[in-house]
Structures are given as structure tokens and as C-alpha cells.
Amino acid sequence: MKVIRGEEQAVHEWGGGQTRELAIGPEGATYAKRDFAWRLSTATITSSPSSFTPLKGYRRVTVVTRGAITLIHEGHHRAHLTPYLSDTYSGDWQTQSSGVGEDFNVMVAAGIDEVVQIIWVSEGAEPLCVRRDGDIVALYVPQGEVLVSSESSEYQVFGGDLALLTSPSKGSGEMAITWSNGAPELAVILVQLHCKEQAS
């Protein structure tokens, strides 16, 4: 497992605010070239309304982590999102956002299935065990601090950090998440990506 700290993440400005790239794959791929298979990022939306950059051929999941944001997909649905509600939509669509806040984003190309879960950990509670079954497993901590145990190692993961496993051991099927510091109850975002090409 690798922990990508907040200070290591690339920060870019966009029309609606600021975005941080948490992780991208495969190795060597870039967002600018649109040659990535998957990408995890966060965004701070400070301008309303804002237009999202079209991402033809990609599926997107947006989870709001702070504030309230409405996503308006022209010719499709709209979704009003408050913290830890999510929306899944096509990058082909014309999408605008209304409202200000912060969000977490998953972008995947064809051939990858994503499972995004919100997990709550509480002060004083026993470690929460989560099954790891994706080809790529990521745990994002929006605020606070948690302790993650995986494959006989422990990692302190702070607010804004991403814990990433790109080659999970097939023999070790769980990771344990324990509250460490912050609000009495913390939300963390678990992403498991299943690469169909690797499933055969």
C-alpha cells in the first residue's frame, strides 16, 4: 500500500475552482492526453454555475464531501448532492454544476467497473474490516485521521490523503480501518476498480 499525501498531489486551476489529482493509471498516463484508464481526483468548486470538462468515453462518479452542489446533465437527469451523496454519469454528457463546495471524483474508461462506498468510522469503535476484491483499491479520507491496516502493515492516513493498492494480494482479503483523530464520526471513501481485461 502507498499513501499519497496531500502535499504530493498535483494541483491545477480550472474554470470553476481548483482540482487535485490523487492518482492516475496506468503508469505514465496523463489527464491532458486522455490516455488514462482510471483517475481519482478532488475538486473545490468556488464559482457557480460552472461547466464540467467533457470526457468522451469515460464514466464519472462524483461524491460531494463539503457544501451542496447540484449537477445538471443537459438532456438527462439532475442530482442535488449534499455531503457523501454521489452521482454516476457519462463524461460524454454536457454537465454544469450549481453551488459551491468540495467533491471527490472517479473517472474510468470502458473495461473498468467501479464500486464506490462511503464508510463511517467512529471514535472508540472496534476496527472496521472491509473486504478488498478490486484490482485497484483506494481509500480517500476527506477530513480527520484514520489508521489503515493491510497486509500486516499499518498506515496513518490524514485528511486529504489517499491510500492506494494497485496490486492487492489475492490471499489477503480484508483491510481494517480505525478512527484515529477528528470528529467523533468520520466518513471515508472506498473505491474498488475491477479491470475486465485482467479478469480472464
List the helices and strands and how they pair.
Elements: E1 2-4, E2 10-14, E3 17-25, E4 38-45, E5 50-51, E6 58-67, E7 69-73, E8 78-81, E9 86-90, E10 95-98, E11 101-109, E12 112-122, E13 128-131, E14 136-140, E15 145-150, E16 153-158, E17 162-165, E18 174-181, E19 185-195
Antiparallel strand pairs: 1-17, 2-3, 3-4, 4-11, 5-10, 6-9, 6-11, 7-8, 7-10, 12-19, 13-18, 14-17, 14-19, 15-16, 15-18
Structure overview:
This protein is mainly beta and 200 residues long. It folds into two domains: 9-110, Jelly Rolls (Sandwich), CATH 2.60.120.10; 113-198, Jelly Rolls. The protein has no helices and 19 strands. The protein has strands at 2-4, 10-14, 17-25, 38-45, 50-51, 58-67, 69-73, 78-81, 86-90, 95-98, 101-109, 112-122, 128-131, 136-140, 145-150, 153-158, 162-165, 174-181, 185-195. β15 (145-150) and β16 form a beta hairpin. The mean pLDDT is 92.
CATH topology of the largest domain: Jelly Rolls
> Helicity, in percent?
under 10%
Poorly predicted runs: none
Order of helices and strands: EEEEEEEEEEEEEEEEEEE
Structural class call reads mainly beta
Question: What general form does the structure show?
Answer: globular
Q: What strand order characterises the main sheet?
A: 2-3-4-11-6-9
Task: Label the CATH architecture of the largest domain.
Answer: Sandwich
Mean pLDDT across all amino acids: 92
In total, how many beta strands?
A: 19
Intertermini distance = 24 Å
- Major β-sheet profile: 6 strands, antiparallel
- What is the CATH class name of the largest domain? Mainly Beta
CATH superfamily of the largest domain: Jelly Rolls
Task: Provide the domain count.
Answer: 2
Discrete helix count: 0
Beta-sheet strand percentage?
A: over 45%
What does the radius of gyration come to?
16 Å
